[in-house]
Specification:
Blueprint lengths: L1 H14 L13 H10 L6 E5 L6 H8 L3 E6 L2 H11 L6 E5 L11 E7 L8 H14 E12 L6 E2 L2 E2 L5 H8 L3 E12 L5 E11 L1
Parallel strand pairs: 1-2, 1-4, 2-3, 4-5
Antiparallel strand pairs: 5-9, 6-7, 8-9
Helix pairs in contact: 1-4
Length: 205
């Protein structure tokens, strides 16, 4: 099953351009607003999980952050991002991995995940992810999650997803995290449709 998922995403990122996928953002406005909310020092350890070829890493580099990790299950996605960034890609730690197999070597100050977590649809995988974030984020570090809301789609790229509300997302993480701020975002896709997202930020206890 894991191989099937990896193959799915490799195919997506080798056959579709950035403006042919629903999640594309020219500028990741909501993610950047959460980043700026926490006013992290430039030596903070920051990871973008399930990043694909997102532009969030571009913003991190432009702002001068020096310890950046970008993780995705698709090697093709990360290669696209590296090609776009050119020499700037040398400032980033690139990780090709299923997030549930990821074994960090540092503690993170900021863990960002826009639309990867919602692909975990079993309690076992969700619990494993929650534990991974608790183990990987330092005390007083931040977690930012974006998923489809209950008003959003039930699938993405042909795969089932799990929708969240502010309450249901908070309940999953409340053992190790305090909720900071939650918002809903209306994401305009390249196809001129609207997808409703639920974003929440948390501080590690």
């Amino acid at each position: 099953m894991e191989t099937e998922i990896k193959n799915h995403w490799e195919k997506v990122f080798t056959t579709k351009s950035h403006d042919e996928v629903s999640w594309f953002q020219e500028y990741p406005k909501t993610s950047v607003e959460f980043l700026e909310l926490f006013d992290l020092p430039l030596d903070a350890n920051i990871i973008d999980v399930g990043a694909g070829d997102s532009r969030f890493v571009d913003v991190l580099i432009e702002k001068g952050y020096r310890n950046i990790w970008v993780l995705d299950i698709s090697a093709a996605a990360l290669e696209r991002a590296k090609t776009r960034l050119g020499d700037k890609a040398n400032h980033v730690n690139w990780v090709v991995s299923d997030v549930l197999d990821f074994k960090p070597t540092v503690k993170f100050d900021f863990w960002h995940d826009r639309a990867a977590f919602h692909f975990l649809t079993t309690d076992l995988k969700i619990t494993k992810y929650v534990q991974l974030t608790a183990d990987s984020i330092r005390t007083n570090g931040f977690l930012v999650l974006g998923t489809f809301s209950e008003s959003g789609p039930t699938k993405c790229s042909g795969l089932e997803i799990k929708q969240y509300t502010e309450t249901s997302m908070s309940d999953r993480f409340n053992e190790s995290f305090d909720r900071v701020r939650c918002i809903q975002e209306e994401h305009a896709t390249p196809f001129n449709t609207i997808q409703n997202f639920q974003f929440c930020s948390f501080r590690r206890k």
